[in-house]
Amino acid sequence: MIYEGTIVEDGFTITKLYTAFERIFPEDYAFKGEYHNFYELVVVADGELGVAAGSDVLTLKKGQAILHEPMEYHNVWSEGKTTPHVFIFSFQAENMPPYYTKIFQIEDVQAVYRVLQVICAEFELEDDFKIAKKRAEHDVNWQISVKSLETFLLRMLSEEVIRKNSNMQSAMARNYAKALNVLENNINKMLSVEEIARLCNMSEISLQKTFAKYAGIGVIHYYNQLKISVATEMLVSGYSVKECAKMLGFANQNYFSTVFKRITGRSPSEYKRMQKG
């Protein structure tokens, strides 16, 4: 008897865990937005959660989730006068299956809780949310716990449900999307708040209020974060620090380096060396 077998290619794999935790946010909760170079899954177990994901403004309700891509600016806040109960996992992954929706429907929210339980049982947490280290390096159970998250994600992606959200129809949400488009189209310049507001056909006060609500930071802070996000990709692609500064509209290389370090915690040169190493 001849057995030929079938090659099983490397599939979706979580290569690094950063956070795993649950929270019940107060009614007035508003997070200061962020971006990072890994995925972040947010699942709402109860209540309503406002989410800004890139240029999209959404409301997640009980049993819904969002998966933020690496380097996608995102922010969350309590919505609908509720105290949202959420589960959050962040991780690096290889061979992530493609997905074409922002909101996923989770039929079994308890499954998320079970995933969190097994991960917390096998990994030590720092500050009650950051993954610090494996409890037992040579124990296979930590691998099982990571596989449970992989399985949950694969099932969620295979059952994706595209849902339109009424929150996207609000004037403020449309203005936010318009403003992000203006910033992205002027990434090579250094616009002032006044210039951005004029290009958006908004007042400066309205512009700042819009970013405070959906981004959790000021428009110039967001603009700089957007520039530095692009700069990280440019540095990895081989551009010099001087070229990045010039192409992203910074007055000089020193100012670019100052902003880069303020946002990433490393100088451009350090970041470039780290990526090569």
Please characterize this protein's 3D structure.
By secondary structure, the protein is α+β, with helices and mostly antiparallel strands. It has two domains: 13-165, Jelly Rolls (Sandwich); 170-276, Orthogonal Bundle (Arc Repressor Mutant, subunit A), CATH 1.10.10.60. Helices cover 40% and strands 23% of the residues. It is built from nine helices and ten strands. A five-stranded antiparallel β-sheet has the order 1-7-2-5-8, with helices on one face. A three-stranded antiparallel β-sheet has the order 4-3-6. The protein has a two-stranded antiparallel sheet with strand order 9-10. A hairpin with a 3-residue loop joins β9 and β10. α1 (109-122) runs antiparallel to α2 (141-158), α6 packs across α8 (253-264) and α7 (241-247) packs across α8 (253-264). The longest helix has 19 residues, at 219-237. It is globular, with a radius of gyration of 21 Å. The termini are far apart.
What kind of sheet is the major sheet?
5 strands, antiparallel
Cα shape: globular
Question: In the CATH classification, which architecture of the largest domain applies?
Answer: Sandwich
Cα distance, first to last residue? 49 Å
Count of individual beta strands: 10
Quick recap:
The protein has two domains: 13-165, Regulatory protein AraC (Jelly Rolls, Sandwich), CATH 2.60.120.280; 170-276, Arc Repressor Mutant, subunit A, CATH 1.10.10.60. It is 40% helix and 23% strand. The chain has helices at 109-122, 141-158, 171-185, 193-199, 204-214, 219-237, 241-247, 253-264, 268-276; strands at residues 13-24, 39-46, 48-53, 56-60, 64-68, 74-79, 85-94, 103-105, 123-126, 130-134.
